[in-house]
Specification:
The structure holds 2 protein chains of 2 kinds. Chain A is an alpha/beta fold. Chain A is built from 5 helices and 7 strands, in the order H-E-E-H-E-H-E-H-E-H-E-E. In chain B, helix 4 links the parallel strand 6 and strand 7. The chains are: A alpha/beta, B alpha/beta.
């Protein structure tokens, strides 16, 4: 009888010890400082993004074991506070970020998306670069124009960005765009 | 006495012709033999509108003194005493000066309807409460006089007065909306093609959603037969005020959950709360701090509220927040596969359903392959 009691106590003690060890391991893992993450920033505006730029950013992210940070740049009219909610632009950004994330996940590239507000696209980009450490910025030159980053913005980016900047010139045959129709919201 | 019928003429901006159309239809009703009276008209000195109002009886306005200024307001008791079959009451979003029956004109209209009088009224889309942020973002102009969206829902009929942006700008240039000295300023500010195009889209969507919600309400009512059931069904849309709560953690995979939750909130026309239950004593620094900041920014962009609760019991913390915030819907990310002693515990969604008040739904948002589960 006493043997059973001893064996039972030993099993209980073992189980308790195992539980405590597992718990300690879990807590230790939770509080562990995550290692530095390499980030590749892919800023975009509007409702489409150059497929060439996205593919390049994904290739780089895979090669460098980096996290892709697609960032939708939104503008806030001067009469409104900069931190006001922007549901209309968020409605444009969300399906785009979803589409980018789908492509990235298919290629096993981790994604950490952002929506950044500013008085202009350049201002939004400046705020983003100030807040987020990034190792590389990939910008499609084809996106320049009235709806995106202008040539001046790209010059500014080359001059000021605390990261390597890769400006992709579209190939003459590159008509590819990743876009999302409004209906898919 | 049954309530009067309520028809609202909705426009994307001033000058599309809401008041004009309301008066036209008022004339048509009068020609058909109905007793029609103007309860309140704001023609904004537009000649076409003033001309269109001729031939319709107008109930005299009443002078009200506000901050030493005498303003003319709709005389609600006089309109009800006059008892026309149909009252035309312009600008339902108007705010009344203090000291008269109601603070807002849409409340005056509710009294007129309750007296069994049909009402035609007008409103611009930017006055709807839920669209206020969106329209302010689009146009840079925040409208102070707002009305609850439910006002549109109470109308028996909503008529969208649609006009292309180009046609509206042509009307503006022709001096049909503002005086010549104000035209340039209007063209440079509010009346820009991109503003008007966006407002038009918002108006069209609003009316489509309003029609859809009315259709659903009717479908809910139809199968019910008894008087008691009808009463319950009629009250149901008012009673169900949805509020979403998404459980997040400071990690990139939470963003997809937030996106899903936000889209659901948009569809339901409801508010969204994000909740992170932070284990006590866990330092928020480095990457975790950046992720919390990113979540806070995302919440601000979306007009959602990020709540951070320090608690060692996730379920208890969620249950408390659900009660405090009146949440009706909880969205959680997919859990990691349970191992070891974890298998003995009930899954998180089940524990949440047991701990929260009855009727709170729990939805699990699946992660994509390769994403880190919570």
């Amino acid at each position: 009888m006493s043997d059973f009691v001893v064996i039972g106590a030993a099993i209980l003690a073992g189980a308790l010890g195992g539980y405590l060890l597992a718990r300690r391991w879990r807590i230790g893992r939770r509080t562990e400082e995550p290692e530095a993450i390499h980030r590749i920033l892919l800023p975009f505006t509007g409702t489409e993004i150059s497929r060439r730029a996205l593919d390049a950013a994904l290739r780089l992210s895979r090669a460098e074991d980096a996290t892709l940070m697609p960032a939708y740049l939104a503008t806030v009219p001067k009469r409104l506070p900069l931190d006001c909610s922007i549901p209309h632009q968020a409605g444009q950004a969300m399906p785009m970020l979803e589409a980018i994330e789908q492509r990235a996940t298919a290629q096993r590239v981790p994604v950490d998306a952002r929506i950044e507000r500013g008085r202009s696209y350049r201002h939004a980009l400046a705020r983003l670069l100030e807040a987020e450490p990034v190792d590389r910025v990939v910008v499609p030159a084809g996106a320049t124009g009235s709806n995106g980053l202008s040539g001046d913005d790209l010059v500014w980016l080359l001059d000021r960005a605390p990261a390597e900047v890769l400006i992709l010139r579209p190939a003459p045959s590159d008509e590819g765009r990743v876009s999302v129709s409004r209906e898919s919201r | 006495m049954p309530d009067g019928r309520y028809k609202i003429f909705l426009g994307m901006a001033a000058g599309v012709g809401k008041t004009y159309r309301m008066l036209q239809e008022g004339h048509a009703e009068a020609d058909a033999g109905r007793d029609v009276a103007i309860g309140y008209l704001e023609p904004h000195k537009r000649e076409d509108t003033i001309a269109q109002a001729r031939g319709l009886e107008a109930v005299a306005r009443r002078p009200v003194t506000h901050r030493d200024v005498i303003v003319e307001e709709m005389d609600l008791p006089a309109v009800i005493a006059r008892r026309p079959e149909l009252a035309l009451i312009d600008e339902l979003a108007h705010t009344n000066p203090p000291g008269i029956e109601h603070e807002k004109r849409y409340e005056d209209i509710a009294d007129v309807l309750a007296a069994g009088i049909d009402v035609f009224s007008t409103v611009n889309v930017q006055h709807l409460e839920s669209l206020n942020d969106q329209v302010a973002e689009l146009t840079g102009v925040r409208v102070r006089e707002t009305v609850p969206d439910s006002v549109l829902g109470t109308a028996d009929e909503v008529v969208l007065i649609d006009l292309t942006p180009e046609a509206l700008i042509a009307r503006l240039r022709a001096g049909k909306i503002y005086r010549p000295e104000n035209i340039d300023a209007a063209l440079n500010n509010f009346f820009r093609i991109e503003n008007l195009a966006a407002l038009r889209e918002v108006s069209l969507r609003q009316v489509a959603e309003s029609v859809e919600s009315q259709r659903l309400t009717l479908e809910q009512l139809e199968p019910l037969g008894t008087r008691e059931e009808e009463r319950i069904a009629a009250e149901a849309p008012k009673a169900v005020g949805e509020r979403l709560l998404a459980l997040v953690r400071p990690q990139p995979s939470s963003q997809r959950l937030v996106r899903r939750a936000w889209r659901s909130a948009q569809r339901l026309g409801t508010d969204l709360d994000l909740l992170w239950v932070k284990p006590p004593g866990q330092p928020v620094e480095g990457e975790a701090e950046r992720q919390v900041t990113a979540l806070r920014q995302l919440a601000s962009v979306l007009g959602a509220t990020l709540l951070v609760e320090e608690h060692d019991d996730l379920v208890a913390a969620v249950a408390r927040v659900v009660r405090e915030r009146g949440s009706t819907y909880i969205m959680v990310g997919e859990s990691k596969p349970r191992r070891g002693f974890g298998r003995l515990r009930e899954p998180l969604p089940q524990r949440l359903m047991e701990a929260t008040p009855p009727g709170v739904d729990v939805r699990i948002v699946a992660y994509r392959v390769g994403e880190e589960k919570q």
